Amino acid sequence: DLLDVQTLNSILHIEDSGITEENFHEMIPLDSFIGQSADGKMVPIIPGGNSIPLTFSNRKEYVERAIEYRLHEMDRQVAAVREGMSWIVPVPLLSLLTAKQLEQMVCGMPEISVEVLKKVVRYREVDEQHQLVQWFWHTLGEFSNEERVLFMRFVSGRSRLPANTADISQRFQIMKVDRPYDSLPTSQTCFFQLRLPPYSSQLVMAERLRYAINNCRSIDMDNYMLSRNVDNAEGSDTDY
């Protein structure tokens, strides 16, 4: 879009670049009233635009038409979204919200707050004073927001928290599990649960957690167990 705006500005103020009517078509790579749509395709910006020549004298009209096309290109889609939203929220009320506020209400907060997670956490087989828990919160606090988003997807299957803490319907769970030291952490997204094995240091925990959130191939252990059961069943059939 920025490139499109720059192109239109250059056409509108073309005389500033020393371009005249004589060399107009040598410098401007367009020869009719066509322009780039949102999906990157070249389309007529007005009905019959393919057959309307773009010239030095009508360049200002071209720019006006191109801007109008881009501004109204999504009118049908916007109208459909507006109609759908009106079934849930009275349209007049939407004017009371900014675009950012509406996004946060519908999609949640783009920033994953460690403090919010602490408010809704529940510990299992461990308490908040346990070294494992202290290491975890310190590690999560050192993560970038991008990493915390990956962490959220790892433990819950979603990438945002609701804007209102009261709307978090399920408490975040941290559970200590009996597995070998320095194993990879696992999760159960259906329960918003992180399962931590014992670690020899916070550094090792951070390394294992980063590996897990960046390389997890399935939402949770359910898919793994289903696949393993299928494999076992196939193996049993073969043995018989």
Automatic annotation (TrEMBL):
EC assignment: 2.3.2.26
Pathway: Protein modification; protein ubiquitination
InterPro entries on file: HECT_dom, Hect_E3_ubiquitin_ligase, HECTD3
GO molecular function: ubiquitin protein ligase activity
Domain HECT: 1-227
Keywords, ordered alphabetically: Cytoplasm, Phosphoprotein, Repeat, Transferase, Ubl conjugation pathway
Enzyme class of the recorded protein, top EC level: transferase
Catalytic reaction annotation: S-ubiquitinyl-[E2 ubiquitin-conjugating enzyme]-L-cysteine + [acceptor protein]-L-lysine = [E2 ubiquitin-conjugating enzyme]-L-cysteine + N(6)-ubiquitinyl-[acceptor protein]-L-lysine
Catalytic-site annotation from UniProt: 190
Name the record gives this protein: HECT-type E3 ubiquitin transferase
GO cellular component, one term: cytoplasm
Predominant cellular place of this UniProt entry's protein: cytoplasm
Pfam families the UniProt entry points to: HECT
Location of the protein in the cell: Cytoplasm
